[in-house]
Amino acid sequence: MKQYDLIIIGGGQAGLSVAYFLRRSNLDYLILDNQSKPGGSWLQTWDSLKLFSPSEYSSLSGWGMPKTEQEYPSKTAFIAYLTAYENRYDFPIQRDTDVLTVIKENDLFKIETSKGIFYSKALVSATGTARKPFIPNYPDREQFIGEQIHSLHYRNTDDLKNKKVLVVGAGNSGAQILAEVSKDAFAKWVTLEEPNFLADDIDGRHLFAQANDTYFGKTDTVPSSKIALSSIVMVPSVKEARERKVLHAVRPFKSFYKDGVVWDNGDKEPFDAIIWCTGFKANLDHLTALTVIENNQVKTIEESTRSALEPKLWLVGYGNWTGFASATIYGVGKTARQTVKEIQAFFNTELGPL
Ligand SMILES: Cc1cc2nc3c(=O)[nH]c(=O)nc-3n(C[C@H](O)[C@H](O)[C@H](O)COP(=O)(O)OP(=O)(O)OC[C@H]3O[C@@H](n4cnc5c(N)ncnc54)[C@H](O)[C@@H]3O)c2cc1C
């Protein structure tokens, strides 16, 4: 049975970023990914999705995304870029391989997959969040007989034409899906609080720059709530929805009934479908047996992506707890570079030079 120095679980942008920084190492590593082609979870996003930053700010380390005709690249353009990135660096990736569980055996990781067993001395988990769509708990949700879909499963409005649709969630997904659905259906938007729309001239690139500055204490001119990476970027489709005057959100209902929702004042309103744009949680199920998961996170050493409890395990790309903005295209490179430095040091000092 072959034993690798390092296995990276997940071949999305986070896994590829780690691989990019491994190029000059001598480590014998392999990426395992459960999809049949490149693209990570971008393959499972809705058809019309546009990135919220121009290509320069939607690029991974080393090789920038080629400029696209439209200022905000489509998801198809981004998947093509990820595919070309992977080919350019010829990363070792085994696809169609679902990692089911990881256990420790004689100081090695034993990685049980849909395609057999792999062993490695160290492990990077970069499995993203798309397998764990989050839907908040509303009373009587199971009584609702209409359709309920998470944004993960929303593709386009083909099955929603002229229906009454409730879009739930205040992030970019909620705003973009509302913008699209409201053209073909009677759409209403529900958010916990008033959505935080960015000014028209602030898109992802400014968001990253401002967030960086604030994070590193360079400025206190912009209150942090205004620069949250979850703020809504006014991409063209959202601006267009504003012009149509449909970009209004109301506060949540209190429960469901058979045909729809019950608002706070007791009024009932029927809906044909609910689209939950309510986010995701880290997909860590494969690490359960290592007993390192607490509150759906793995505690990491401060300023590091290394697990505090399992020193041969690193976690990349899940959110701020795995590095500032590491769940974004622009942000993941910084933590990937740091992760590889730590892995390299681990092999040099703790295991002896290769
Ligand atoms: C709708 C939406 C729009 C976004 N727009 C932007 C944007 O414009 N700009 C930006 O910077 N960020 C954006 N993001 C955030 C982020 O860039 C993406 O979520 C990105 O896909 C995260 O990359 P990742 O590599 O961490 O995870 P993923 O892309 O999910 O990659 C993880 C890979 O691991 C695989 N995998 C998972 N579990 C296993 C397993 N057990 N075994 C084997 N393989 C496994 C997955 O199938 C996948 O291929 C957006 C996110 C969403 C949801």
Q: Give the CA-based shape.
A: globular
Number of helices, counting only DSSP H or I runs of 4 residues or more: 6
Strand content: 15-25%
- CA radius of gyration is 22 Å
Q: Strand count, sense and closure of the main sheet?
A: 7 strands, mixed
Instruction: Please identify the structural class as seen in this structure.
Output: alpha/beta
Cα(first) to Cα(last) distance is 20 Å
State mean pLDDT (0 to 100 scale). 92
Order of helix and strand elements from N to C terminus: EHEHEEEEEEHEHHEEEEEEEEH
Q: What molecules are bound to this protein?
A: flavin-adenine dinucleotide
What percent of the residues sit in helical stretches (DSSP H or I)? 10-25%
Unreliable segments (pLDDT under 50, ≥5 consecutive)? 220-225
Q: Based on DSSP secondary structure assignment, what is the total number of beta strands?
A: 17
Q: How would you describe this protein?
A:
The protein is α/β, with parallel strands linked by helices and about 350 residues long. The protein has helices at about 15-20, 75-90, 170-185, 205-215, 235-245, 330-350, and strands spanning about 5-10, 30, 95, 100-105, 110-115, 115-125, 145-150, 165-170, 185-190, 250, 255, 260, 270, 275, 295, 295-300, 315. The protein is about 25% helix and about 20% strand. The strands form 4 sheets. Strands 1, 2, 3, 4, 5, 6 and 17 form a 7-stranded mixed β-sheet that branches. A hairpin with a 2-residue loop joins strand 11 (about 255) and strand 12 (about 260). Helix 1 crosses helix 6 (about 330-350) and helix 3 crosses helix 5. The two termini are about 20 Å apart. It binds flavin-adenine dinucleotide. Flavin-adenine dinucleotide binds near residues 11, 34, 41, 130 and 204.
